[in-house]
Amino acid sequence: MKYNIVVGGAAGQGVKTLAKLIGKTLKHHGFYTFTNTIYMSRIRGGHNFFQIRFSDQPLYCHEKEADLLIALNDETYTLHKDDLKAGSFALLDASSKLGEENIIKINAKSYEKDVNVKKSSTYVTLGAIAKLFNLDKNISTRDLNTDQSKAFGAGYDDQKVLYSTLPPSKDKSISINGNEATALGAIAAGMDFFSAYPMTPATSVMTYLSDKQDQCGYIVEQAEDEIAAMNMATGASYAGARTFVATSGGGFALMTEALGMSAIAELPIVVLNVQRPGPATGMPTKTSQSDLSFILHSSPDEYPRMIISLTDASNAFYQTFRAFNIADKYQMPVILLSDRYLADARVTISPYDLNGLVIDRSLADENMTSFKRHEITESGISPRLLPGNPNHTVFADSHEHDESVNIVEDADMRVKMHDKRLRKLETLKSELIDPDYYGNEDAKTVLVGWGSSSGLLKEVTQDLDLGALVFGDIYPLPSERISQLKAKGVKFISVEHNATGQFAKYLRGETGITMDHQLLKYDGRQFDIKELKSKVLEVM
Hints:
Blueprint: E1 2-11, H1 15-28, E2 32-38, E3 45-55, E4 66-71, H2 74-80, E5 84-93, E6 103-106, H3 108-115, H4 120-132, H5 137-140, H6 146-158, E7 174-177, H7 178-188, E8 193-196, H8 203-216, E9 219-222, H9 226-239, E10 243-247, H10 249-264, E11 269-275, H11 292-296, E12 306-309, H12 313-330, E13 333-339, H13 340-344, E14 346-349, H14 411-428, E15 436-439, E16 445-450, H15 454-463, E17 467-471, E18 473-475, H16 480-487, E19 491-496, H17 502-511, E20 517-520, H18 529-539
Parallel strand pairs: 1-4, 4-5, 5-6, 8-9, 8-10, 10-11, 11-13, 12-13, 16-17, 16-19, 19-20
Antiparallel strand pairs: 1-3, 2-3, 2-14, 7-14, 12-18, 15-17
């Protein structure tokens, strides 16, 4: 059983509130949910909508076609009526003048006027939805106050059952989006300092962490701009703090000079880039996978870094935790790539398992007899101590230096230090995580994607006789699995949300493997499952 509810209206009409209440109600009933949101960059007006899927089985992506359309204004019905599945209905307020056969009316606005209780129309509509899907009234109202429950009851009693839902599942789960999951991963990793300048769609990471900082004992600093945010984080890292920065592409562009500083000073730092369409301001509230090429080459010259693309809300938590340990161990930046789709998509998942999560600062013995901060080693990893050590002075500098941080321009020492830093990447390869494989292990055609495309590709392989290979670790690239598939004669179809196939180009450069077909979408929206199935079948 799978249903899809679309809730739409103008900003300021309570679209987000209603969608949140629907998701919470379904969660209380034990259903798995996946909520995708499309909103405009404005405070009031425009058109915003939410796609809320729910099922008795886990869900991994959104769907465009609706079993029920909740239209808070007539424009929403006009824009989405063609997305209704055959035999499905739209729910509109009784004040609407539209009278199509597939429209159900609800007296939500008139109820609010009669009782003179603000926002009560939202709960009337919630009650109507609960009745249409035959949800339990007591479960649905357990978090509501008296006025809200009365309004809910008015809507519930006004409608008839439209769908017979299955009994609620017994699974315990949590409801979370990608930005919250990333923030929780940083908290679990022992983050000490977070700095950022607000930039959609990364801002909710900062607001979430701000809400928790007194409870969890770290510092959140809203900087005057992205340059300051990265410089603050670099200084905090030198002082010994586990540091975290979140931004989007335009903000990351301003951070690259300080990122290079952290690289040459060998300071650990974790940076989250939540992608949106650009260039410049672009489309702040839409989604994209268009920053990969930029991230791969950010900051002047060559330096070691790790790039990890987050694939879903569960993965985001564990990969963020892992990123802090890798940053400390290899004393280098770790860049997490997310996007607006993953950032805002709310999904029910199993609770995080904290067993086995160990914070590893990888610091040297402070009582060691001799200390060279940038000692040349076979692994490329030098001993690291924190400032304030009673036995050794800890220096850092943005210039090229020798093992003891003396500034040098000597050609031989330059080559030795540069090679030392780059050797970290060879050492890191032993810790890379292979891409996830979904679907038929013997498939002749395999979809190739990265990051937030994971859930979409996973669901497509459930319906089509395909395989899917989804990369999380991006740089360095774990290439063995795709090379094995190529050797078997598999045909590859890459799926990306950018215009030039950035990951396919990078993959070809690293492995020599060329995609047989590319499916690209760059209008600021993620492929929906029906759309991608259709395009896959076309190229096959």
